[in-house]
Design goal:
Blueprint: H1 8-20, H2 28-31, E1 37-43, H3 46-52, H4 55-62, E2 65-71, H5 73-86, E3 93-97, H6 101-106, H7 114-117, H8 134-141, E4 142-143, E5 146-147, E6 150-155, E7 157-162, H9 163-168, H10 183-193, H11 212-222, H12 245-256, H13 270-278, E8 284-288, H14 292-296, E9 309-313, E10 327-333, H15 340-350, H16 353-359, H17 369-372, H18 375-380, H19 388-394, H20 406-421, H21 427-444
Parallel strand pairs: 1-2, 1-3
Antiparallel strand pairs: 3-10, 4-5, 6-10, 7-8, 7-9
Helix pairs in contact: 11-12, 12-21, 20-21
Length: 474
């Protein structure tokens, strides 16, 4: 794993901080794990790099060695699935994206965690699982009422813009969650500052095929009406509903941002779009809240843009609808691990109140009430406290439908959407193709078997399901 090296001054400061921390007595069961080695498969992302700074501290405290294999984000799902399917136990625990939880849990790849949470011999007495935000822990790690993973951070998707560029052009960007920030506002603002001849494009979009199931969805949701919210993909009988005028309008809007992009941008992913923004050559781009510190606000690596940004939500559509995005990465123990107790010991430590709060100064995101309310978060990542209420009350863990077929649905949107971007088909054809192919996927999954009465509950229609206290899950 590419772990950022600390300067001598930072390392010395961290050492003094560690000496000042209260020492928690280890249980006999924890002491017995000394000498173990656990293997971790992780994606290459800023929040994991932030946590990695603390791994030596864990190894010194518990005597358990952490070996990390890092994989690029776009290759991670395939790599993790292959490893899980082979059942070799090569990796003791995995990073799990919220949109893949149903697929992994339904296949039996992950170990239920609540027995470990409640095991006082392995879990520190002050772990306090009820300190996690209810929708964060349930939306990240619960499938069929069972807890399978622990969140290392969770947040909304959004957009980042250069406040100084807007000011120079004679306007001020709105506040986060302001109804003023609409799809029309975003397009008009991007057009106003777009000037490729001066190396400034209006918006660095992300149209690469693999990414449509992530970066296009804010617009699919934005073009809903209050009456159609909840029916973005399927109706109450699981019939695919995506072929409609709202989807077509959302694709057309996504495509309109091509006006600001270079001709060779059809395969741009998060890396390409972010690099253009970091170089100071884009007015705006997509963001995910956990990426803000690492991608946009690190003065050592983003000197051209750090401190000059405004981080907003995704734009509201014509009917005022904002995408209720829920994104999160979490940690899950492999059912094939030979070192489950050692893996759990690490997981409960790295997601503890103490470590989570300290890690936010390096870019890790919050998932606990105490972290959101901490002075550390407010000091080092001041864009986070403003989304606390959103994550408590508005966010939708089922924004990307929590079924094992989601990865296939996402890929279908990416393939058909990217075909529109490159001019191979139009948006109407794409929406029709999406409906047909998604229907085939759901039929293959058994959703249309006559008389079947055990279909999954559509929890996004009543989000109170996700509001239980974390300790109440199985």
């Amino acid at each position: 794993m590419n772990i950022v090296k600390l300067s001598a001054a930072t390392a010395a400061g961290l050492s003094l901080l560690l000496l000042a921390l209260p020492a928690h007595a280890q249980t006999e069961a924890q002491k017995a794990l000394a000498g173990k080695t656990v293997h971790f498969l992780a994606p290459s992302m800023p929040q994991f790099a932030a946590l990695a700074k603390f791994f030596p501290e864990f190894e010194e405290k518990y005597g358990i060695k952490i070996v990390v294999d890092e994989v690029p984000f776009e290759n991670y799902r395939q790599k993790s699935l292959v490893e899980m399917q082979q059942g070799t136990g090569t990796y003791d625990f995995f990073a799990v994206d919220v949109m893949w939880l149903a697929e992994y849990a339904a296949a039996g790849f992950l170990e239920p965690l609540m027995p470990y949470v409640k095991n006082g011999d392995l879990t520190d007495a002050d772990y306090d699982i009820d300190d996690f935000l209810p929708r964060v822990i349930s939306g990240t790690g619960v499938f069929n009422d069972t807890l399978y993973t622990l969140p290392i951070g969770a947040g909304p998707v959004g957009t980042t813009f250069r406040a100084d560029v807007a000011e120079k052009a004679g306007f001020k960007l709105p506040e986060r969650f302001s109804p003023e920030f609409t799809t029309k506002y975003m397009y008009d603002a991007a057009k106003k500052v777009n000037n490729p001849e001066s190396n400034m494009i209006g918006f660095a979009n992300i149209p690469g095929r693999w990414f449509w199931g992530v970066t296009y969805l804010p617009y699919l949701f934005a073009f809903q009406t209050p009456e159609t919210k909840g029916d973005e993909y399927v109706d109450k009988d699981w019939k695919i509903t995506i072929n409609n005028e709202r989807t077509i309008a959302s694709i057309d809007y996504f495509l309109s941002l091509k006006e600001f992009m270079p001709a060779d941008s059809a395969n741009w992913g998060i890396g390409e779009a972010t690099a253009v923004y970091q170089a100071g050559n884009a007015f705006g781009t997509w963001n995910y809240q956990d990426f803000v510190k690492g991608f946009f606000e690190d003065p050592e690596t983003q000197a051209k843009v750090a401190g000059k940004n405004v981080h907003l939500h995704t734009p509201a559509g014509p009917s005022g609808v904002i995408d209720p995005w829920f994104g999160a990465w979490s940690l899950g123990v492999s059912k094939d691990s030979k070192n489950k107790e050692a893996a759990w010991t690490f997981m409960q430590w790295v997601t503890s109140k103490d470590v989570q709060e300290r890690a936010t100064q390096y870019g890790a995101g919050p998932s606990r009430h105490s972290t959101y309310k901490s002075e550390t978060l407010a000091k080092y990542q001041p864009w986070w406290p403003g989304v606390y209420d959103f994550m408590l009350k508005e966010t939708n863990p089922d924004e990307r439908v929590r079924v094992p077929e989601w990865a296939e649905i996402s890929d279908i949107m990416g393939e058909e959407g990217n075909r529109v971007w490159i001019g191979e088909i139009d948006s109407k054809t794409a929406a029709a193709n999406m409906e047909k192919r998604m229907t085939d996927a759901m039929r293959k999954g058994g959703y249309y078997i006559p008389g079947r009465n055990d279909l999954p509950k559509q929890q996004w229609r009543d989000l109170t399901y996700y509001d239980r206290l974390p300790s109440e899950w199985n």
